[in-house]
Structures are given as C-alpha cells and as structure tokens.
Amino acid sequence: MTTEISSTLLADFPAVAHVIVDLPNELGDELKITGSDGHHFVRVRRLRIDEVVTAANGSGSWRPYRVVESSGRRLDLIATAEVRVESPLTPPLRVAFSLTKGAKPEVVARQLTELGVDSIIPVVADRSVARPEAQSLVTRLQRVAREASMQCRRSWLPECLAPVTFTEAIDLPGLVVASRTGTAATGKPNSQGWTLLVGPEGGFSPTEIAALKSVPILAVGDLVLRAETAAVAGAAVLATQRSRLVA
Fold first, then answer.
1. Which pTM value belongs to this model?
2. Beta-carbon contacts of residue 100 (< 8 Å; ≥ 6 apart)
3. CA 141 to CA 109: how far, in whole Å?
4. Which CATH number fits domain 10-85: 3.40.50.1260, 2.40.240.20, 3.30.2130.30, 2.40.50.200?
5. How far apart, in whole angstroms, are the C-alpha atoms of residue 13 and residue 54?
6. What is the assigned CATH class of domain 93-246?
7. Cis peptide before 105, with omega less than 30 degrees from 0?
8. Residue 209 carries which DSSP code?
9. What angle do CA 23, 26, 28 make, to 5 degrees?
10. What does the pLDDT profile of the chain (247 residues) look like in tens digits?
C-alpha cells in the first residue's frame, strides 16, 4: 500500500498521530513504537489497525506509516510512502529567555516549540532567581520540546541549549529585546535571523539596560507581562513575521 504525497510539509499530511523517533536514521519500512510512546498511542490515544501515523527524525526527514498491530505498550507500523525531507523555516528564530522559578521554563519551552522556534536558550540575568543545574534543565527542556513537537507535528526538533549568561546572550546574532514599548518587526533580517531576548521578573538590572541601549526593541503588549508570557508573545510576533516573509 502506497500513499501519494503532494507536499513535503509534514503539517499538511492527514494523520491521526505523530512520533519523533529516537535514532536520527530510523525511518525504515517498518517501525515498532514501544515504551512510553507505545503506551500513549495504544492506551491513551487508542490507535487502531490501518490508522495513519507520521514519524520524523527531528532533523527534517519524515515518513507516513500505517498501523498494522496495536496491543499492550507496542505499536507496529509499516511505511506507506518514501521518506520526505522538509526544509527548515528561514530565517532562524531563537528565543533567549531569562530563567524563572518552578516549572515555568518547561511551559515556555512547550509553547515556543509550538510556535516553531528553532533554538530555546535560557539566560541567567542579574535578577534571575532560579539558577538550576545546567544538564538537568537541558534534559527537561528537551523532553518537553519533543513532546510538543509530536503534538504540533514538527519534523525539526528545536535546539534546547544550556543556560548562558546575560553577557553571552547579548552577543547572539540578530538580537531584539522584548518590551512594552517598541515597534513591530519589519523588513527581512539577515541570514542569521532573530534572537529575541526576554528579561526576568522585575526586568533587567540598570547595568543590563545600559548594555542594551543600542539593541532594537520589539513591542509585545501595552501591559506588564510575566516573563514567560513575554517570551511567547514576542515569539508569536516574530513567527508571524517570518511566515509573511516566506509567503
């Protein structure tokens, strides 16, 4: 059984579920989904024989499959078409957000993934209260980004980086700062794209504000937003601008 695919865009393909495979090259003619993913598809989503599932490797390649077995915690799939390759969105969009307390970084990562952000970069600013262990945070963000990519049907996983200092953040390419005042993104950035910098609760310190004096400001709303809300609002503005540039 084969399926004709008229588009290389994963989001255009009709399927009931999507999975990101763990191994980059594992998009063979047959797939076996086990573990927590298998449990989710079989027990929670209750996928049945002949339903269509897409699988991606997180690096742009994806392929449609048909369910041939669904039992226990295991889903067996067989390919219905050849592997397709989806080009990354351009220009690149990065969000460098100052760390907040609790599970808020994971919430930010989930929503940024759904918006198509390419790189998610935690920042330790002067007023950042939370300073988690780097590898633990990266692992948590990667897990959330993978789950969100499966939900929103991305073929490219976002890059989740270890926390950087404010000084390192302001050296990132295409820097713009989220603020209550400023302008909407206009024109086309260079090939390096945008990096949206978002301050912590309470805002940037006077020293940091001075360092940002010549950096363009992106308006994200008239009211005072939580840090995590500002990150998502600014990313939505830039993601929309990117879509218009592509169109």
1. 0.91
2. 108, 128, 129, 130, 200, 201, 226, 227, 228
3. 6
4. 2.40.240.20
5. 8
6. alpha beta
7. no
8. H
9. 175
10. 455 555 568 888 999 999 999 875 689 999 999 999 999 999 999 999 999 999 999 999 999 999 999 998 999 999 999 999 999 999 999 999 999 877 689 999 999 999 999 999 999 999 987 788 899 999 999 999 999 999 999 999 999 999 999 999 999 999 999 998 776 655 567 788 999 999 998 899 999 999 999 999 999 988 889 999 999 999 999 999 888 776 5
Residue 161 CB-density burial (10 A; 0-12 exposed, 13-18 middle, 19+ buried): middle
Q: What angle do CA 76, 81, 87 make, to 5 degrees?
A: 110
Q: Which among 119, 142, 110 has a CA at the least distance from the CA of 193? A: 119
- How long is the chain? 247
Token code pair at residue 226: 């939580």
Angle at 36 between CA 59 and CA 157, to 5 degrees: 15
Tokens 């990132």 found at = 172
Q: For the chain, what are the domain ranges? A: 10-85, 93-246
